[in-house]
């Protein structure tokens, strides 16, 4: 009898309409695919039942999280080779539908045959329940105060000790700013200092850090630039550790950490606002309100530094779909917008955009550093969370690193000013003076 792997390889090549880019190893020990190619293991036929009931990347991700699908070798190489399932390599844009989902199209006789073969391989029975790390039971309108709090809790309340393993001592969960030869810690410090210099922080300034995480930005700004800082987060676990770090740094009198939504801040004006890796949670429908709130909170002549991940523009914006794996397991309700839309909405709110710096390649390098940390401390990470949650993070960060490196998504620092009516922005004539 033919082994499972050759049969599965034939199904995959029908769906891809191309040669299999990896070697498959099935639960019965059989293998198929290009000799010497990196190996993808389908260790349990339950993964096929998941795929039948949920064609596409979410079905595949559930198999990965459950440990039914594995990659024993170079994770990046396998993900890069199968990336064509989700993206057009020539243009770097989303196809809108995974090639795996073509199996749902029964008009093609080849697809009908592939479906019958997959059903036969999967065996009888319903799919197993999704792994428990998946987000469940979301109700109500997107981006209400209550729903945003729940979404943030799912992602950030994994545990401070887990994040410390992954992020390292800096506890900065956003793109670092690299130079050749720097370490992750040095690159994160360089990023924090770059933000401070772009904001033109001076002794005695009031700084609001929106989405302050574990307090790294406000601690750096208060210690190095003498500001009075307020950091806000929706994660109670983040806030608890941030307050502890502030106290240990001797900055309790100058730094205030709050569990608070940006929509509830009412003690402006601030001299400067930083928003680093937070705006991805705001949502397209709420972004205009977000920009207006920050404009209201910063004083005339004050600056905003908005550091945000961006997706590539789509030919048909209405056709864009949120990544199912990221939405289901990592960032519930997260949304990415093209850079142009973000700049336009900041300008609509009254800001004058003075500088945009694209640092896409820096994020790929940062993510690879986090993956290396996770892999180095794998057993501890599993103890602190669960095997499934650790697998979620390994896949999410490795796939995201490739997405930045292949220009599928980007990240940008946008410097904007609430320019007074008299027109003096306060920005140096040579805008990028902070680089010297």
From TrEMBL:
Superkingdom as given in the UniProt entry: Bacteria
GO molecular function, one term: methyltransferase activity
SUPFAM superfamilies: S-adenosyl-L-methionine-dependent methyltransferases (SSF53335)
Gene3D superfamilies registered for this protein in UniProt: Vaccinia Virus protein VP39
Record keywords, A-Z: Lipid metabolism, Methyltransferase, S-adenosyl-L-methionine, Transferase
Domain (Polyketide synthase-like methyltransferase): residue spans on this chain: 162-402
Entries under SMART domains matching the protein: PKS_MT
One Pfam assignment: CMAS
InterPro entries per the UniProt record, alphabetical: CFA/CMAS (IPR050723), CMAS (IPR003333), MeTfrase_dom (IPR020803), SAM-dependent_MTases_sf (IPR029063)
Membrane-spanning residues: none
A single BP term in Gene Ontology: methylation
Family the UniProt entry places it in: Belongs to the CFA/CMAS family.
Matches recorded under PANTHER family: CYCLOPROPANE-FATTY-ACYL-PHOSPHOLIPID SYNTHASE (PTHR43667)
Protein name as it appears in the record: Class I SAM-dependent methyltransferase
Organism field: Streptomyces meridianus
């Amino acid at each position: 009898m033919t082994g499972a792997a050759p049969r599965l390889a034939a199904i995959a090549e029908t769906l891809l309409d191309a040669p299999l880019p990896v070697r498959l190893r099935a639960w019965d020990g059989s293998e198929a695919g290009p000799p010497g190619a990196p190996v993808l293991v389908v260790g349990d036929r339950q993964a096929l039942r998941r795929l039948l009931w949920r064609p596409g990347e979410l079905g595949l991700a559930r198999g990965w999280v459950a440990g039914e699908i594995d990659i024993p070798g170079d994770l990046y190489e396998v993900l890069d080779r199968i990336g064509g399932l989700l993206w057009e390599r020539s243009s770097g844009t989303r196809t809108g539908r995974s090639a795996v989902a073509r199996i749902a199209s029964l008009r093609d006789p080849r697809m009908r045959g592939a479906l019958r073969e997959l059903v036969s391989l999967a065996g009888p029975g319903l799919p197993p329940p999704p792994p428990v790390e998946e987000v469940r039971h979301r109700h109500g309108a997107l981006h209400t105060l209550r729903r945003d709090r729940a979404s943030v809790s799912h992602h950030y309340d994994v545990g401070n000790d887990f994040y410390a393993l992954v992020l390292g001592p800096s506890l900065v969960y956003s793109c670092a700013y690299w130079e050749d030869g720097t370490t992750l810690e040095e690159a994160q410090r360089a990023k924090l200092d770059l933000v401070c210099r772009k904001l033109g922080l001076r002794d005695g300034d009031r700084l609001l850090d929106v989405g302050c995480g574990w307090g790294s930005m406000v601690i750096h700004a208060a210690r190095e630039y003498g500001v009075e800082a307020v950091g806000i987060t929706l994660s109670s676990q983040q806030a608890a550790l941030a307050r502890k770090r502030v106290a240990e740094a001797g900055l309790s009198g100058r730094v205030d950490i709050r569990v608070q939504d940006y929509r509830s801040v009412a003690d402006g004006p601030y001299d400067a606002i930083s928003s680093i890796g937070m705006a991805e949670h705001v949502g397209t429908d709420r972004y205009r309100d977000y920009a207006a709130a920050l404009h209201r909170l910063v004083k005339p002549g004050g600056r905003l530094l908005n550091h945000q991940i961006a997706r590539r523009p789509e030919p048909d914006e209405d056709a864009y779909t949120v990544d199912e794996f990221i939405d289901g397991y990592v960032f519930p309700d997260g949304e990415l917008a093209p850079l142009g839309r973000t700049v336009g909405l900041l300008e609509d709110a009254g800001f004058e955009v003075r500088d945009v710096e694209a640092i896409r390649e820096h994020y790929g390098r940062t993510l690879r550093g986090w993956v290396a940390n996770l892999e180095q401390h794998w057993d501890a990470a599993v103890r602190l969370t669960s095997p499934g949650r650790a697998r979620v993070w390994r896949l999410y960060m490795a796939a995201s690193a490739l997405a930045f490196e292949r220009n599928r998504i980007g990240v940008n620092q946008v410097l904007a000013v609430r320019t007074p009516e008299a027109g003096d922005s306060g920005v140096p004539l040579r805008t990028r003076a902070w680089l010297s």
